[in-house]
Automatic annotation (TrEMBL):
Keywords (A to Z) from UniProt: Membrane, Transmembrane, Transmembrane helix
Transmembrane feature ranges: 12-32, 52-77, 89-109, 129-148
Entry protein name: EXPERA domain-containing protein
Length: 174
């Protein structure tokens, strides 16, 4: 497979996954992964509540597996077109993604532990501090989104000379 075809295939995966997973996905996964308001009033013991909150963990793992698709595309693009400056930016994306994934998981898991349905604190007040994690997560995600978008745009654009690939009306390549 030619490099151009591989880059195009990666672009077909990268752009939809970036839009659907990174821009729309957080809303869907947040609704699915946290303990809902209907479940909270039915929980009576600490064990039941912890079990319900821990049920969110598989959804958090699935969420991060979906979110990693654009990063994997960047890594594959970088392997196709190695360039030191871009490679360092891809490494920065990987680091920012890891921090964002940890902050997001702590926030979503912690927010599901805050509610007990009766106003009783089942867990330490430290879990209540997770309500501030979206601010930290936003501070990490904004530069991550900008960097991933700009790298994706750079990687998915043709670097070769389009005039060299032009075909004249007689069917001969110029």
């Amino acid at each position: 497979m030619s490099t151009l075809a591989a880059r195009a295939l990666l672009a077909v995966v990268f752009w939809p996954s970036l839009f659907f997973f990174w821009f729309l996905g957080p809303f869907v996964f947040f609704l699915l992964s946290t303990t809902s308001s209907e479940v909270c009033p039915r929980l009576e013991t600490r064990a039941e509540f912890l079990h319900a909150a821990s049920g969110a963990l598989p959804m958090l793992v699935l969420q991060n597996l979906f979110y990693v698709v654009p990063i994997v595309c960047l890594v594959l693009w970088n392997r196709l077109l190695p360039e030191p400056v871009r490679a360092s930016r891809v490494v920065t994306c990987i680091k920012l993604f890891a921090v964002a994934a940890v902050l997001g998981a702590l926030w979503e898991y912690g927010s599901s532990l805050v509610c007990d349905g009766y106003g009783q604190p089942f867990f330490s007040p430290v879990w209540q501090m997770t309500s501030y994690l979206p601010i930290a997560n936003l501070a990490v995600n904004i530069p991550l989104y900008v960097l991933v978008f700009s790298l994706g745009r750079t990687f998915s654009m043709r670097e070769d000379d389009p005039a060299a690939d032009a075909v004249d009306p007689d069917g001969n390549a110029s």
